[in-house]
Amino acid sequence: MNLLMVIFGLIAIFAAIGTVQAFKERNILSILFNLVAFVVFGAFVVLTITFQGYPPKLH
């Protein structure tokens, strides 16, 4: 799960950067997809790290 959280975190960061660029270009569809990707991947990373810790606990 360690590497998965890093990869999903990078995806969320790139989605945030893409959202800013999409606002500059005024591309509505790109804004929508980037925001959805940022929210989904970002929330997954934050909640996983919150509840499992980093590095995750093994039960």
TrEMBL record:
The chain crosses the membrane at residues 32-54. This is DUF2759 domain-containing protein. It comes from the Bacteria. InterPro entries: DUF2759 (IPR024490). Keywords: Membrane, Transmembrane, Transmembrane helix.
